[in-house]
User: Fold this.
Amino acid sequence: MRFSLAAVALAALSSVSAFAPSTGPQNVLGKSPLRMAEDNVQGPPYSGPASKPILDSVKFPSDMKKLSMSEVKQLAHELRWEVLESVSKTGGHLSSSLGVIELTVALHYVFDMPEDDIIWDVAHQCYPHKILTGRRDKFSTLRQLDGISGFCKRKESEFDSFGAGHSSTSISAAQGMSIGKSLLNKRKNNCVAVIGDGAITGGMAYEAMNSAGYLNSRMIVVLNDNGQVSLPTGTPSAGGVVPASQLSTYTSNLLVSKPFQDFRSFAKSFNKLLPEGIQDVNKRLDEYARGIVSGGTLFEELGFYYVGPVDGHDVDNLVPILEKLRDSPNDKPVLLHIKTTKGYGYPPAETASDRMHGVGKFNLGTGVQVKSKSIAPSFTSLFANSLIDAATEDRAIVGITAAMPGGTGMDIFGRRFPKRTFDVGIAEQHAVCMGAGMACEGLKPFVCIYSTFMQRGYDQVVHDVAVQNLPVRMILDRAGFVGNDGPTHHGCYDLAYLGCIPNLTIMSPSDEIELKNMVMTCAAFDDGPTVLRYPRGTGYGAEKLQSHFGYKLKDGEVPAKGEVIEIGKGRIIRGPNAMIDNSSTTRGKERKDRVAILSIGTRLDEALVAAQEVEDSDENLSVTVADARFMKPLDVDLVRQLADDHGVLITIEEGSIGGFGDHVLHFLALDGLMDSGNLKFRPMVMPDAYFEAATQNEQYDQAGLNSQHIKGTILRLTERMKVPVLEEA
Assistant:
């Protein structure tokens, strides 16, 4: 393409005056008309506009192109309240979406999806994006069975350029798309990655920036800086109560050390993105105001052209800046640094300690969430308080989390032991390896990470922990199905991906008493690494523990502290007629009528229900239920006992194929316990499929792992129920 240097110079001058913003640079978020409207929200009670005429006219981003700038700002206002009203009825990730309303509107106003690509890192902030891309009428189904996902999903919409749920992936994906567009000679090459100051703490983001700068990939990275690195940010830890990221400190210093950049100052420094010949001409136009800031050094050294900081709630500036970046002929990657407020425009979210990050249904007028009553604490809080008990007696115990103090209970532990709590940001690899280093020096690190996020630290588990047999305690919260966060967050695979690693001791509690016991067991075990996995959910309470699980509780109360249990030893919970002693029963006189269920984890509850229902339905059947407790080392004596005494053995777990059931089957085969042909074995696992958002119970129902499915398996194996034979057509 040929350029007229005079024409370009004239355009540069005219564009500065044409898009001059209504507000000048400031050190705090400016007060554009839209911002003043949001700041003046009255309440409580809070309420939005009675109607949304602009939003009603926008079904897809193409409908936005005809809007005036004042209408674009009104659209942002209406969109904010659409998100609030919708999420108040369904629950979901609220404040992340509220914080990017103006950015989302500006991006869709400037770029042409789906031809252009916008990649949302993590994508929990994608609600306004989804509303503007044809899914507004489906928002009542958000994160529900057969509804729309709470994250971007390529199969859900052509406007979801890249699926997400885990963090720090957007820059890599955008670079790959940019290279693809370039090599395939596509007409346009506009790829935008939106990443937060939390996600950019992940090492993969730096790897991607290093590569993008080196390869000069044409792309725009929008760094959404809201000062919320961890969930929640500000909990006590060894680093204090500031965000768990030195990069966050760096970008915060940029924000306070220089005024916000408006379009006028941006246009003067835009020279750097133009071809070299044009730069020579334009140097005379902007030499008196060359450069944006000296503070963008880090990103500039990585090869990026740094723009910012920019007020992320000021549409007047965002739109023309994005237009200039879109139309630049240069292939140099750009980092646009914007400052936003998480939960912006809704006072209850802006003032909450967690900014109302993830919420259930709530009262829109007050922000008060609808809380379901529970008879017992959550497994997460039970773990945290048990760890506090152990740490009170052992000063070597420390806790590590990767930006999830609230989700793992490290916020509770941190309030009691701040100097022994370490939040490393979104850096699971670092968390595991740092724990290994601590173990080398004699500390007892508890590395607390969601099961799904531990996948990101797998090499460190093998290479840095297990190979060296270091006593690192790996605590995997959210094991099994997690409910409405869907497939990116399920903890389905840890039993399979960890079970194949030598030196690991792997345990999973069936109830809150067992969880407390296993925390103490991990704390006491120094002969190698341990894994403790437990699900999202709550305990059962003293009454059910006694009536259903057979506990004999002193004074009818759950023990305050756990006890160390023997490594690798399971337990029989129930014999025929709900008795441990089988000698007095008339059931199961024939071997084929004797059934054993060997459970690991909290499927034990469903197994006990199924056992009772089976015996109630058939007076000849007997059902024994055992709790394995450990997958490694496996209680082989218990497995032999169950195999010798029963004609049917069923294992059940909250995990995928390749996990606990496979370990039991492997032992049965090698030990010759199936050679005689008088033992039927069935593993009940999560099917080889991805399970979308739904409630946990609905997901276990879909997977065939609830009590009725266990009962059906027993009745088929004992020939009380015929299995339909599929005939060829």
Notes: Residues 275 and 641 are 78 Å apart (CA to CA). The chain has a mean pLDDT of 87.
